[in-house]
Amino acid sequence: MTLLIHIDGAARGNPGPASLGVVIQDEAGTLLRERGRCLGERTNNAAEYEALLEALRLAFELGGTRLKIRSDSELLVRQYNGQYRVKSPKLLEFLLEAHRLARRFESVEFAHVPREQNKRADRLANQALDAEAKKAV
């Protein structure tokens, strides 16, 4: 089963309170799963990677075999696809875990999209942060 997945990570401050957003649809565009959740204190790049890891785990649970993952983080996509080197040891850990999880699928296509094409995942990440901020008040 082919899954179309949009991901986003957000951090308010760098590092700061962070969250992720994941939207998973089937080929027909039917929503199968969406998730937004807080991550605690992270950098924006770490939040982006954690969104990718969450998406890979959820896709496996849903029985996906071929993944088309979309992110508005050009850095994340280029690092995953081997076009950029990863200098941060923590981000390298995330990258290695992402590649390990990706081996469970027949194929994983990971591409950059403009922010306008990633609004739903962005909204989920920001809603999680907003809800967490309200709890703190």
Can you describe what's shown?
The chain has one domain: Ribonuclease H-like superfamily/Ribonuclease H (Nucleotidyltransferase, domain 5). It is an alpha/beta fold and 137 residues long. The termini are far apart. Strands 3-2-1-4-5 form a 5-stranded mixed sheet. Helix 1 packs parallel to helix 3. It has helices spanning 44-61, 74-80, 89-102, 119-136, and strands spanning 2-11, 16-26, 31-42, 66-71, 107-112. The model has no long low-confidence stretch (mean pLDDT 95).
By CATH, the superfamily comes out as Ribonuclease H-like superfamily/Ribonuclease H
Q: Over all CA atoms, what is the radius of gyration?
A: 14 Å
Oligomeric state of this protein: single chain
Strand content: 25-35%
Number of helices: 4
What characteristic shape results from the CA principal axes? globular
Largest sheet: 5 strands, mixed
Overall CATH architecture: 2-Layer Sandwich
CATH topology: Nucleotidyltransferase, domain 5
Helix/strand structural class:
alpha/beta
Strand order of the largest sheet: 3-2-1-4-5
**How many structurally independent domains?**
1
In whole angstroms, how far apart are the ends?
Answer: 43 Å
Question: N-to-C SSE series?
Answer: EEEHEHHEH
The average pLDDT is 95
CATH class: Alpha Beta
Low-confidence stretches: none
Number of E-state strands:
5
The percent of residues in helical segments reads: 40-55%
Topology:
Blueprint: E1 2-11, E2 16-26, E3 31-42, H1 44-61, E4 66-71, H2 74-80, H3 89-102, E5 107-112, H4 119-136
Parallel strand pairs: 1-4, 4-5
Antiparallel strand pairs: 1-2, 2-3
Helix pairs in contact: 1-3
